[in-house]
Specification:
about 400 residues; alpha/beta; three-stranded antiparallel beta sheet; about 40% helix; globular; binds pyridoxal-5'-phosphate
């Protein structure tokens, strides 16, 4: 079976995890700290806090920026639902900015126009969740100009983009954002089984993230409300959650991070093979690289145009018959039933809707062999030539 994505686990990973299982700490011990420090240093950020998923890290990020009822948060419709849900958890209103049809990231032109319009209506967003789709950064320089003009906060949903960079700034360094979030779900760049991480350069935000992660409880006497306190004292000073990552997960992440750069190199090599093999297949468009970015190549989304001669459904089924599973990233968030009930409808964000009609993510992962990749390429070409699936 060839899947669209798959984790890479080696013996070092397994021995790191079994070490933890034999140790004194299963959660919030030295491995958790080591993983946070490693990600912090890798990303060149001041703070890194682990979470049990990117979804909970996104929720905590919104809370740390004081997003709540009455606030508006914007994001891209071309993302996983969690990029929008995080604001709904806080009682905020969610709205979307359509994508650019070449990068599939948020369109800066549309963002600019929407900001101009909403300034007139008094509906400016408190925060923008940018999504670095497939591992390629959004155009942060231009987004920063708009942020300076309109004063919104920026959360980077960098779930796809660990190991990538923008204008030689490593993603997660938060040079042009308040907080960046990574996911360690097995399909992502590195895995902890489940897990997430938030990076930031702001001490206050880091403190809030930590409180949200741990029930709103602090053991830091500087934050205590009470004056004279006994030695065992702790205080719950805000309402938080249990969003902690275990040391079992952290040790897997710590071990995986050592191979991140080789993972990215391998994904980029495989992508380059797809680029050259598929770019001349009639009816297929391969993804374009933005020269300002070094993409982590989390996904390889191809576009199936009408001239391909058979529908995306038939290509999907034809590949599946050969044991090749593909996937679609993403059905536009605003067209999910929940968001349609919030008032969004077909036609609201036409670029992401059109993109969704055409896109298919074909297998891309570190352990994809040359033979397997060749089978994917040849099967696509065969379906194109013989329309065997029609
Ligand atoms: C995977 C993903 C998430 C959610 O990550 P979890 O760790 O599974 O919670 C959020 N946003 C994007 C863009 C993702 O790809």
């Amino acid at each position: 079976m060839i899947r669209y994505s798959c984790q890479n686990i080696n013996d070092d990973d397994i021995s790191e995890v079994t070490d933890t299982l034999r140790s004194e700490f299963l959660t919030q011990g030295p491995k958790g700290l080591a993983f946070e420090v490693a990600v912090r240093d890798y990303c060149n950020a001041r703070f890194a806090l682990s979470f049990n998923s990117a979804t909970s890290a996104l929720h905590a990020a919104c809370l740390s920026l004081d997003i709540g009822p009455g606030d508006v948060v914007w994001t891209s419709p071309n993302s996983f639902v969690a990029s929008a849900n995080c604001a709904k958890y806080c009682g905020a209103k969610v709205d979307f900015v359509d994508i650019d049809s070449t990068t599939f990231n948020i369109s800066v032109e549309k963002l600019k126009q929407k900001l101009i319009d909403s300034e007139t209506n008094g509906t400016l967003p408190k925060a923008l969740v940018v999504v670095h789709f497939a591992g390629q950064s959004c155009d942060m320089a231009r987004i920063t100009e708009l942020r300076q003009r309109y004063g919104f906060k920026i959360i980077e949903d960098a779930s796809h983009a660990l190991g990538g960079s923008y204008q030689n700034q490593i993603i997660g360094s938060c040079q042009s954002s308040d907080i960046a979030i990574f996911s360690f779900h097995p399909v992502k760049m590195i895995t902890c089984g489940e897990g997430g991480m938030a990076t930031t350069n702001d001490h206050k935000i880091a403190q809030k993230l930590e409180l949200v992660r741990g029930h709103g409880i602090t053991r830091n006497s500087d934050l205590f409300i009470s004056k004279a306190t006994p030695p065992w004292h702790y205080e719950m000073i805000s309402l938080g959650f249990n969003y902690r990552m275990t040391d079992i997960q952290s040790s897997l992440g710590f071990s995986q991070l050592k191979r991140l750069e080789s993972f990215v190199r391998k994904r980029r090599e495989l992508s380059a093979v797809y680029d050259s093999e598929l770019k001349d297949v009639e009816g297929i468009k391969t993804p374009q690289d933005d020269t300002k970015c070094y993409s982590s190549k989390h996904l390889y989304p191809i576009l199936i145009e009408e001239s391909f001669g058979c529908s995306k459904e038939k290509l999907f089924e034809g590949l599946k018959r050969k044991g090749i599973t593909t996937s679609v990233h993403y059905p536009p968030i605003h067209l999910q039933p929940f968001y349609q009930r919030e008032g969004f409808k077909n036609g609201d964000f036409p670029n992401s809707e059109e993109y969704y009609q055409k896109t298919l993510s074909i297998p891309l992962y570190v352990d994809l062999t040359e033979t397997q990749q060749d089978l994917v390429i040849q099967t696509i070409k065969k379906i194109r030539n013989k329309r065997i699936a029609s």
